[in-house]
Design goal:
184 residues; 2 domains; alpha+beta
């Protein structure tokens, strides 16, 4: 009788661990993968990939037959997980992924809640692009990039779009506004 209970307990623990691993992989960002989505995923398969979630496509684009310009993935509980932008190829794949949920994390522990210091300490920065309201931080050897609001910068750097902002000018505690992945 004890052997039966031990066997049942081991099976339950194994199932519990496999469910936990599957859930953690659902929010893992690595190489060419964002959760269940891969760089090779076709836009037409998004509803199959996220079958347990809600997929909302831009109905204006759908009605005119040009394909969806944005695809939003919502968790069944209502939380926005990802915003996807497919490319316009004949066999469309996903071109851009906007990470909306804080649970998505890279293999180096970086998420939407990370600061510039954490990004800088874990990744080599390739380039910083300055726009009117934001600073875009591109990483070397990665499709991942971050947008930081200029409100996070010192006041002397906020109001000039022509300024080239360098890595040393961004405060360590600057928060990430957007975390994105751009696939070609």
């Amino acid at each position: 009788m004890k052997l039966r209970y031990t066997l049942i307990l081991m099976i339950c623990c194994g199932l519990l661990i496999s469910c936990t691993d599957e859930q953690s992989n659902d929010f893992q960002i690595s190489g060419d993968q964002v959760g269940k989505l891969s760089k090779e995923s076709l836009a037409r398969d998004i509803e199959l990939i996220f079958e347990k979630d809600s997929v909302v496509q831009d109905t204006v684009k759908l009605n005119f037959g040009n394909g969806a310009s944005k695809i939003k993935i919502y968790e069944k509980g209502g939380a926005l997980l990802l915003t996807l932008t497919p490319n316009n190829d004949s066999i469309a794949t996903i071109q851009n992924v906007l990470i909306n949920d804080d649970r998505f994390v890279t293999d180096k522990g970086i998420s939407k809640l990370s600061t510039f210091k954490e990004i800088r300490e874990n990744y080599a920065i390739k380039k910083i692009i300055t726009s009117l309201n934001n600073v875009v931080v591109l990483l070397k050897d990665s499709d991942l990039y971050f947008t930081i609001d200029k409100k996070e910068l010192p006041e002397s750097l906020r109001y000039n779009a022509n300024n080239n902002i360098e890595e040393v000018q961004i405060p360590d505690n600057a928060k990430v506004k957007y975390m994105m992945i751009g696939w070609d």
